[in-house]
Design a protein that fits this description.
Layout lengths: L4 E5 L6 E5 L6 E3 L6 E3 L25 H22 L12 H27 L3
Helix pairs in contact: 1-2
Length: 127
């Protein structure tokens, strides 16, 4: 770029425009979109597009509370499975106690409900 040129952008379409410094302060049309604009007085001025909104991003704002509850639910599920299966057999491989199996399955079901509840609540309370 030479010293006798001004570079700027169209406010409407963002087209980069380079004109002679002699045209500073004058009004003209954008060569790309045809919108009326004024050539700035200073050199190397980049104008923002004022008529456009900034891009919107979806940011997940799920509370740590629900994520932690979901993790607790997974731990409860595995605890119930271990209690119902591993601690329920004697050395011969037979079921040693029916109540341990029942409690283990109850703990497993409680873990499943906890995970389900935390999933619903994290969806409900998102962003």
């Amino acid at each position: 770029m030479t010293d006798d040129q001004i570079r700027f952008s169209c406010r409407h379409c963002g087209a980069k425009i380079k004109v002679s410094r002699e045209l500073s302060g004058r009004t003209g049309k954008c060569p790309k979109c045809g919108e009326a604009m004024t050539v700035p007085e200073q050199g190397l001025v980049i104008e923002l597009q004022l008529d456009q909104e900034p891009p919107k991003f979806l940011v997940e704002k799920t509370s740590k509370r629900w994520k932690k509850l979901s993790l607790y639910g997974v731990v409860i599920i595995f605890s119930g499975l271990i209690f119902a299966i591993a601690f329920n057999f004697d050395e011969m491989g037979r079921v040693s106690s029916q109540w341990r199996m029942t409690i283990g399955l109850f703990v497993f079901a409680s873990g499943m409900l906890t995970v389900f509840y935390s999933s619903i609540m994290s969806w409900w309370h998102h962003g």
